[in-house]
Amino acid sequence: ISDQKPLGCWSVKHGQILTCPVVCNFETHEYIAVHDDKVLRIWKNEDINLDKAFKATLSADVYRIHSLPSGGPLVLFRGGGVRTLDVLLEAPQQEIENVISDEVIRWSGAFMEGQQPVLIFTTEKDGDFFVYVQKPKLSSLHKYKLEQQESSKPLCFTAHVTNQTVTLLCLYSNDSVYQVLIPLQQDTEQEEEEEEEEEVLSKSLLLNLSVSGAVLKGTSLVVLDKDHVAVLGSLAAPGKKPSERLTIWNTKFQTLQASKELPLGTTGQLWCYEEKFFLTHGKVLTVIMYKCETSSLAAAVGKLKNSKTPDMSSFVNWNTLQDEELVVSFQSQESVALKSESRMNLRSRRSGVAKEQPGNLSVGQLLLKLKDASTFMLEEELRKLVAKAPTPDLQAAIGCVVTALTDRCKKNSMYYPRSFLLQIVETRDLSYSLCPDLMAVALEKKDVRLLQICLQRFPDIPEEITYACLKAFLSISEARLRSIDVNLDSVICYIDVELENKEVKTEIVENGFNAEVDQDTCDTKTPKEAQSRSDGESCPVGPQKTALLNAVLHSAYTETFLLPHLKNLPAQQAILFLRYLYYLYVKCSEKVNTTLPGIRSPTINQVMDWMCLLLDAHFTVMVMLPEAKELLSNLHKFVRAQVRFYSELNKIEGSLRELQRLNHLRDSQTYSIEVLEII
After folding, report:
1. Which of 76, 164, 221, 247 has its CA 20 to 30 A from that of 136?
2. How many CA atoms lie within 13 A of 213 on its CB side?
3. Higher confidence at residue 502 or residue 291?
4. DSSP 370
5. What is the pLDDT of residue 504?
6. Lowest mean pLDDT among 113-122, 137-146, 265-274, 584-593
7. Strand, helix or coil at 624?
8. Contact between 205 and 192 (Cβ < 8 Å)
9. What are the Basic and acidic residues biased-composition ranges (predicted)?
10. Can you tell me the distance from the alpha carbon of 438 to that of 427, in angstroms, rounded to the nearest whole number?
């Protein structure tokens, strides 16, 4: 999430359907999925093809897999049977008992009580709700009936286990949260199952979801700690249009602690993990950090002495003004504080949040005030803001400053504060997600210097933008590039230069490759072949374009997402890029440590990865193009020579290790002559 880069992507075959959420096995660091109800798949992060992953077909339909950090995965079947994953894998076709009859599972959760995993699930049948508590390792099962509520029914459930007691929280359709306490009975493996009368669980009212006449129609409920819950729902106030909100409540004192409006709408689902909320807001994944403090009456009513600001401060992000989206940062006077928010458009957006300082305008208010200001006034005020001493919120604020500038650039095609943008990007540790429109504007203005710096400094550039930069760099003419100020630190130490129209080249002695003698027996030296070797020795592009291409090579990417874009690269540009990569490959091979001199120079691994990507994307086209034939042939011969050379090294690896061992054993103070015979 921090880098907004997909780390892995797997898919099932056409026609197959994932039928329950995928989980991670914390003990083995494996992923576990179920498709088509009965087919279990297990794979690791380095596995690429899901179809080749471990597969087991089970005898019954799976409802959900629960993964516990220290208890191992638990598999809950639609019939109510539960197995640990280890027991299930010993005999995948083992018979699974049907615990429930004509009932439908509505919710399930897994917890650890001491060393024992506990699985709880609720079912519904003809309007009645039941609760099952299972301890799989002790073969213990208890069934309870939930007390009925007149004219309302449970919408969702959540639970937590403390002190041998299950606390089940139920969100009902009458806009209330009820609490049910279920004691965990002490079972042993030798305990005989007894047919008992079904116990009815009584419930108590925990919370009414209403504030000053407004009622929250909840859709999702999660527990934060013993005194706080979070509810996602729609707030309906008299005379006002309902609005979706994320709310945090103190159940001990029946008070609303924090509330955040979500104007773009949600799916009604809310997740909570390691003091972070996860929810979808429009087309955006929103992550909100929170912290629960000790519940007290003063905190519940907002009367803490250290409270700086009694009201919630608001910040309007210029990037979403057209959507009238309000991003709210809650102050920390409440016992539950929303600390910060990281929002992303699945891979390419993060909006910062700035707090209001006493006596000063917040960043959001300042930007709103400057929205219609003159260009001079806008830049003057923004320069003052950028020049402020570092604070925890300044980085996000600067991202908003860049967004404000790029928004004005898009509205006024004649406006482009290049020097100001260069100053900000060069002196501040920004990221693509903090100013997502910056590189798009730079591409439109063909500002290759700014694009070069962004590629070098931004860790989270989407593959689509990386490809757009590559295409722009390859298409721009060498004559125009000579007049542009480009940082040449990555190329100046190794690139061939021209002097009086004559190339000055270093002597190339590749690792294990001699172009004069390492030819096929059927090959004959022709002028074209000699010329192609010369092409491999001289850089096919100028210094400025070389520096720009090096910036692309350094940019982080995921192969799965870059390859489709790379296939759209025009054939002539693809050949030119491959010629440059081949040139770099030869240059790297000149050195024993295969490392190019200079600052931010490409590594041999980066060069080889990009060559493979480019050949994967354009191999068919290159094979058909006559101008690419000699390049591919020379590349093939060079790689073959490298493989042959390292193969020879492997043959004498044992002797070299023995020589190294003898060097360690030799007494450096005594003189000796040794003859080592390498067989």
Report:
1. 221
2. 4
3. 291
4. T
5. 34
6. 584-593
7. helix
8. no
9. 522-536
10. 16
Q: Give the H/E segment covering residue 601.
A: none
| Strand blocks (E) in 163-213 | 165-172, 176-183, 199-201, 204-208, 210-211
Is the CB of residue 383 less than 8 Å from the CB of residue 398? Answer: no
**CB-CB contact of 282 with 288 (8 Å):** no
Strand 140-146 with 199-201, pairing: parallel
Token pair in block for residue 40: 């279990």
Cα–Cα distances (Å) from 342 to 280, 362, 402, 436, 462, in that order, read 12, 19, 17, 14, 17
SS3 115: coil
Distance in angstroms (rounded) separating the CA atoms of residues 323 and 652: 68
Distance CA 419, CA 629 (A): 45
* Burial class (CB within 10 angstroms; exposed 0-12, middle 13-18, buried 19+) of 297: exposed
> How far is C-alpha 24 from the chain's CA centre?
16
Each residue of 463-493: pLDDT tens digit? 999 999 999 999 998 888 888 888 888 777 7
Which stretches of 56-149 are DSSP H helices?
Answer: 85-90
**Residue 144 confidence class, pLDDT cut points 50, 70, 90:** very high
Pairwise CA distance, residues 197 & 219, whole Å: 33
Rounded to 10°, the helix 527-537/626-651 angle is: 70
Report the distance separating Cα 134 and Cα 182, nearest Å.
12
- Compute the radius of gyration of the chain from its Cα atoms: 33
Q: Which among 491, 549, 530, 556 is positioned nearest to 634, based on CA atoms? A: 530
Nearest 5 degrees, angle CA 26-CA 32-CA 38?
145
DSSP 510: B
Would you say 66 and 73 are in contact if contact means Cβ atoms under 8 Å apart? yes
| Alpha-carbon span 352 to 431, nearest angstrom | 11
DSSP state letters, 411-471: H-TT---HHHHHHHHHHS---GGGSTTHHHHHHHHT-HHHHHHHHHH-S---HHHHHHHHH
Cα distance between residue 82 and residue 99, in whole Å: 9
- Write out the two tokens for 471: 């295409």
Phi/psi for 581 (5° steps) reads -65, -40
Residues across the chain:
679
Name the residue ranges covered by the structural domains of the chain: 363-445
Distance from the first to the final alpha carbon of the chain? 55
- Measured torsion, CA atoms of residues 77, 80, 83, 85, in degrees rounded to the nearest 10: 30
Quote the CA–CA distance of 171 and 148 in Å, as a whole number: 13
Single-letter code of the amino acid located at 676: L
